[in-house]
Write a structure and sequence with these properties.
The complex is a heterodimer of chains A (113) and B (109). Chain A is an all-beta fold and 113 residues long. In chain A, 0% of the residues lie in helices and 50% in strands. In chain A, strands 2, 4, 5, 6, 9, 10 and 11 form a 7-stranded mixed sheet that branches. A 4-stranded antiparallel sheet of chain A has the order 1-3-8-7, with no helix packed on it. Chain B has no helices and 11 strands. In chain B, strands 2, 4, 5, 9, 10 and 11 form a 6-stranded mixed sheet that branches. Chain B has a 5-stranded antiparallel sheet with strand order 1-3-8-7-6, with no helix packed on it. Classes of the chains: A mainly beta (113), B mainly beta (109).
Chain lengths: 113, 109
Amino acid sequence: DSGVTQTPKHLITATGQRVTLRCSPRSGDLSVYWYQQSLDQGLQFLIHYYNGEERAKGNILERFSAQQFPDLHSELNLSSLELGDSALYFCASSGTRGRNEQFFGPGTRLTVL
Amino acid sequence: GQQVMQIPQYQHVQEGEDFTTYCNSSTTLSNIQWYKQRPGGHPVFLIQLVKSGEVKKQKRLTFQFGEAKKNSSLHITATQTTDVGTYFCAGPHDYKLSFGAGTTVTVRA
């Protein structure tokens, strides 16, 4: 158990819909990262928040947005969903701004039908 | 931007054999990290190397950081079925980790 929690575990929705994925980092970790992993693919970095502020952006679509709240949990919002958005979405946390090891949550499996 | 490349993409190993997976960065790294993702699981941090030429061992796993701090390798000896999974290397760059595409290891008993 990494100490990072993600909800929901599974999500099935239709094209055009909007969903919100939630992540709670390890106690004390200020950094939250979001990744997308499609079937048999690597980890595509989406976005990094540190203590409520956006620090780095990766290949995140304009239809996707994220935020980190004062209690340090984070939400990833995916809108106007397409079939190709079906993937595993991982959240990870670390205690520093990007240099040290990351602790991954169990992931949310999103299926868009 | 920084790119981290890993080879091979797939490694099919006979149980008991050794193998090595390689990681190369387009830029010098402050450190290199390795993660393992079991099938159906999430990536789990294995180790971080910081110094030029550093070598660290974890039981049958040997990790090495190149002298120029641009490449790294993971060598597994006497592969076991528990070694099945995908091994990722990652290097920090601009407040994020750049992950390699991973080496997916399968083991023949």
